[in-house]
Amino acid sequence: MSKSILLIGSNGQVGTELQNTLSSNYKVIAVARPQIDLTQADNLRQIIRETQPEIIINAAAYTAVDKAESEPKIAHIINAIAPQIIAEESQELGSFLIHLSTDYVFNGNNNYPYRETDITNPLSVYGQTKLAGEIAIQKTCPQYIILRTAWVYGTYGKSNFVKTMLRLGKERPEVRVVADQIGSPTWAKDIALTISQIIPQLTLETAGIYHYTNSGVASWYDFAIAIFEEAEKLDFPLKIANIIPITTPEYPTPAKRPAYSVLACEKISKILGTNPPHWRQRLRLMLKKLQEKSL
To answer: What is the model's pTM?
Structure first.
């Protein structure tokens, strides 16, 4: 009989891909708002106890990075308290917990890719609350995988950088994009595929923190140029003629972001037996999927 998986946050960009990827091999119990409310401890505990899953995947989070600066309490409840409750229930059931985290737990002062063992020092409320969630899980439940990822975009979900650029590129001849923040754009589908490859290998020996992103690095400016180049090849409707690189201070935001948040993926590559695919190649594929979806 296939393992039962409780997928929390099944309607987000990663959650939707997880549901699509895992449903053929596992009994997936997919829950999302309003059915589950991460701000209500009793609701969360009740759903976990009723479903009795062998694996819990927490793909839900408070991800509005700038809004979190003015809503630190709610961000803390969803990103720190809820993961602790999930970890407590997971420990009680003896189930394995897979939890998604972020590059924003680092301050971005590195000049080499961040390893899982590097010191965390988040700059924003979002990063601080996500780190608090990681720590709570580690203290509570030995059977866990914390998967840190970065610069996530996908075919599903309301908005992400790719969808924003396509919308702006359709409406405007010119966009200004930050060129001094460096990371690795990552397709949500690849995160789901990675988790599907980890599941058969879940043991206490493989438990721990892992980094996963697509390979290669880019600035947001590089990423925007690539989006428009690939979208043009696929005949997306575009007005864009000019992409202007700007600095972080020229685009002030409530939350501070790490200037460099490339994650080292050697640890997970050993488990997967392969290196992550390059971000540009995956962007091309995502745009094709997006085009098919809109037809």
So the answer is: 0.95
